[in-house]
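Closing statement on the guanosine-5'-diphosphate sub-project.
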Amino acid sequence: MKEYKILFSGTPGAGKTTAIGAVSEIPPVVTDVPNTDPGYAKAYTTVGLDYGQLTLDTGDCLRLFGTPGQARFDFLWRILGRNALGLIILLDNSRPNPLADLEIYINGFGEALRSMPCVIGVGRHDQGNTALDDYGLWLMERNMILPVLPVDVRRRADVVLLIDVLLAELEFHIRKGECSHVE
Amino acid sequence: MSNEQQIRRIASREVQKIAKELHGVSSVVIATVDGFDIASIGLDGEDPGRIAAMASSVSAIGSVISQEESLGRSRSVTIATDTGFAYLSCAYLPDQTLILNVIADQDAVLGQVAYRCAESVRRLEAVA
Ligand SMILES: Nc1nc2c(ncn2[C@@H]2O[C@H](COP(=O)(O)OP(=O)(O)O)[C@@H](O)[C@H]2O)c(=O)[nH]1
Ligand SMILES: [Mg+2]
């Protein structure tokens, strides 16, 4: 049995806390408090961490951690990112500039992203003016190829799909690592 | 004066007084529960916004632990270090929670800081 630590980060209100709650088989650890920031229309916001657990059919156990989204909590991005095997960045397409939002997390996790697979989940993709392809193009301009998936984090199946894609990426990373080892 | 203004006024008065009355204190920040500083005095030029964000994270994790162990509301968290300590206390006002955060070096006495912070917390909580 293997254990994987997976980290959820991304825009406040995109649904990190909701996503972890949607798939966790234990009552999730939640550190949400009343939000006083008028910049985000949400009643509660995460200031510590989210934590949930999910056992796969293979018996492997996923430990799911969520960060606060706001950049003023970036010290926690580093702490929670330690030993994570993969990162899921959740974005909210209805925001004024979701590509600028993406940049915050690509830069914030910059160093870690070199060795850690990452998947991008775009929420409220039917709203806003950014097409899903725009995310891929934006990444390509920065020499990055990451899976970009439309998601509704309120649906368990969507969150499970994000995790499945991340695990597939992880598998690929490991094999690539093994190959380069042999060379 | 609105309630919010009154809270801010008392908060700035309390941070000034704590810094003046206690030895070894390097900064005092009063933060909203989601990590914004509403009053601060940084004697070493530390960024109060950063301290406020950290105070809110630490306090939230303290609250999770007290909840999971059914210990009631969290009142304070102490981080004792090799060269000083950080002492965080929660002020439960009628419609918001504030976090009083004191950073101190080895010249400070923890018991004294805790006692003095409790006094400030009472004054903040008394704002109706
Ligand atoms: N209407 C709608 N609501 C959504 C959608 N995706 C997420 N939400 C809601 O957005 C909120 C996200 O909040 P939260 O999980 O706290 O976000 P976090 O800041 O990323 O942790 C929740 O209330 C979700 O139900 C969506 O596609 N449509
Ligand atoms: Mg959250």
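The mean pLDDT of chain A is 94. With this model delivered, the sub-project is considered complete and its resources will be redirected to Aim 3.
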